[in-house]
Write a structure and sequence with these properties.
30% strand; 11% helix; 202 residues; single chain; mainly beta; 6 strands
Length: 202
């Protein structure tokens, strides 16, 4: 039997090309026309979704499974103190003490006021060793503090047996606010014992 070979006519070639184009367009249209929510997990090949296909900041904490991110998955040095909750990091040992800072400016003391009070001390029998004593107290004003104190006698001749037995500060709320003094007299003459207190506004 003898087969006859015929070349396709130009019209046939054009028709075939048109058919292929039509079929190709239909397949593209079919892919573009997927129904909403029709592609799920079963339609995705393993490892089909890679990092380049994820938009920046598109994965939030709610999309990460609990305990999915472990220390082994965190790059060394990528976390800073600001990435941790307050008080979640352990406190390390105290470091060595730093150098002493510069000295501050010298403080200033306001105007000083001398406040005083006196008391008469009988002299008794002169120079018998039995001193008559009296105590006097001087307080600064409410807005003042005491800085120092001293004593004196009204009869301060060199041969008089007059002496200051004690000067004691008066402390109020951890601040010296006055002084208390005691004087002794064995001169045989009554003399006034005076306590002087230096007060300043502090």
């Amino acid at each position: 039997m003898r087969l006859l070979r015929h070349r396709p006519s130009p019209a046939m070639v054009v028709a075939c090309i048109a058919l292929l184009v039509a079929l190709g367009g239909t397949s593209v249209a079919a892919v573009s026309a997927l129904a909403p929510n029709s592609v799920g997990t079963p339609q995705l090949r393993p490892a089909a979704v890679t990092t380049p296909k994820l938009a920046n900041r598109s994965v939030t904490g709610a999309k990460i499974a609990t305990n999915a991110v472990t220390g082994a998955l965190v790059r060394n040095g990528s976390l800073t103190r600001g990435d941790f909750a307050a008080n979640s990091l352990p406190v390390g040992p105290a470091g060595p003490a730093g150098p002493a800072g510069p000295a501050g400016p010298a403080g200033t003391v306001g105007p000083i006021t001398v406040r005083s009070a006196g008391v008469a001390v009988a002299g008794g029998t002169p120079q018998n060793g039995a001193y008559d004593t009296e105590t006097v107290t001087v307080n600064c004003n409410a807005n003042e503090k005491a800085i120092s104190a001293g004593t004196g006698w009204s009869d301060d001749a060199a041969d008089r047996e007059l002496w200051t037995q004690r000067i004691q500060p008066i402390v109020t709320n951890n601040a010296v606010t006055g002084y208390r003094g005691t004087g002794g007299n064995d001169s045989g003459n009554t003399s006034t014992f005076t306590l002087y207190v230096l007060c300043y506004v502090g």
